[in-house]
## 1
Amino acid sequence: AQSVTQPEDQVTVSEGNPLTVKCTYSYSGSPYLFWYVQYPNEGLQFLLKYIRGDNLVKGSHGFEAEFNKSQTSFHLKKASACGSDSALYFCAVSDTVMGLQGKLNTNS
């Protein structure tokens, strides 16, 4: 079984400072990892994903995440936070790309 953990309920940073939203995962194989964002009064939006290859993944809105297999982490980062980044962020893991629609394990 696979799972993700976001250890911090809330992350507070000043505008212009670096932003990190932490995510660790539990999975013995090669995981597929995802970040989603939900802005106020909007639906869930895809930010970025790690499938394989380059460990540093660049996404939309200036976000990136680095896959770290030894630390089983996939932290979301942004060099300079702005007010519009205030939102809910969801990390997700799956053992397949095709099985995502019915089988996403998320934690916010």
Note: The CA atoms of residues 11 and 21 lie 7 Å apart.
## 2
Amino acid sequence: MKKSWATKDMGKMLGGDEEKDPDAAKKEEERQEALRQEEEERKAKYAKMEAEREVMRQGIRDKVGI
């Protein structure tokens, strides 16, 4: 009796036939939208942090007289 170590998904990983997911395009679009939203939130967070740092820098410049 020969035991097969390959799983059903091994063929997919090796470029074999994939089962078609009818919602694959929709899922991919939702995933892309989620990535875009996360990127926008990350950029907003860092822009806010940089603005706070600039306020702090300006306060130091004012104290020092630069």
Note: Helices lie at 10-13, 24-64.
